[in-house]
Amino acid sequence: MSLAVLRWVPRGLGLGLLAFAVFGPIGNLLLWAFAERWYWPHALPSQYGLSFWSRVFAPRADAWGSLGLSLLIAVLAVIVSLLLAVPAGYALARRSVPARGVLMLLFLLPQAFPSLPIYMNIARLFYSVGLNGTVPGVVLVHCLHGLVLAVWISAAAFAAVDGAQEEAARNLGAGPLMTFATVTLPAALPGLMASAIFLFLDSLDEFTGTYFVGVPEIVTMPLLLFNAAMGGNYQVASITALVLLVPSIVFMLVIERFLKADVLAKIGG
Questions:
Q1: Are 41 and 121 contained in the same domain?
Q2: Are 177 and 228 members of one domain?
Q3: DSSP of 192-239, one letter per residue?
Q4: How far apart are alpha carbons 116 and 114 in whole angstroms?
Q5: pLDDT digits 0-9 by tens, 7-38
Q6: Is it the case that residue 267 has pLDDT exceeding 50?
Q7: Average pLDDT, stretch 234-261?
Q8: How many domains is the chain built from?
Q9: Does pTM top 0.70 for this prediction?
Q10: Average pLDDT, the chain
Q11: Domain range holding 152?
Q12: CB atoms < 10 A from the CB of 250, how many?
C-alpha cells in the first residue's frame, strides 16, 4: 500500500464521520417517517407505509393549523424585529454613537443567561398584562431572541455600504432621506434579507418561549413535535421534524447567496 493511500485513510475516516454526524439524524428521521412497524431488536423497520402521514395531516390532528400559525408568528416576528433592528443597525453603523461597542454587547445580554428562567419571568409578566396565550405575546418572545441577530447583521449590512456612493448622491442634490432610500438601503438589502431569513428560521424553530408564553392556546409545529415525541409517537414527531426541515434547507440556500463574506467581516467591526 502506497504512502499516498495511507495519507487518505484518516481523511476518509474523518469525512465519513462528518457525513454520518450530518446525515445520520436525517436518515433516521426518514426511516421513522415511513416506518409502519419498527420494534427492537430489528435494525430497520419491518414494514413501511404512509399511514402516519395521513394521520398527521388529517383535519382532526390540525397539523395544517399549527403549520399556518407557525408561519404567521414567524412572519410577524420578522416584521417587528426588523422595524426595530434596521434603525438601530443604521445608527450603529453609519452614525457616531458613543460607546458603540458597549451597546453592541448589550444586545447580547439576553444570550448571556439561561433562557429558561428568562422565559419563566417573561411568562409571569405577560400573564399580568394579558399577553399569555396570545399571538402578540408569542411574537414578542420570539423577537426577544431574534433581535440580537437582527441588530448585528443589520449593522454589518449598513457598515458594508460604500460611503462614496452616498456622498455622490448628496452632491447631486439628494437629501438624507432620498439618499437612504435610493443608495444606502438598496446596497444593504442583501444583508437585511439574510437577517430576515435568519429571524424567520429562528422563530419557526422556537420552542421554549412558545411553551411558556403560548401554551395551551398557541400550538405551533415545534410544540406539536414535542408532544408527539413525549408521547412516544416517533413517526408523528419525525414527520413534523421533516416538515420543519424543508423551509430551513430552502432558506439556508438563499442565505448562502445573499450573505457574503465581506458583510460577515463587518460584524462587530
A1: no
A2: yes
A3: HHHHHHHHHHHHHH--HHHHHHHTTT---HHHHHHHHHHTT-HHHHHH
A4: 6
A5: 777 777 888 888 778 778 888 888 888 888 88
A6: no
A7: 77
A8: 2
A9: yes
A10: 82
A11: 61-264
A12: 12
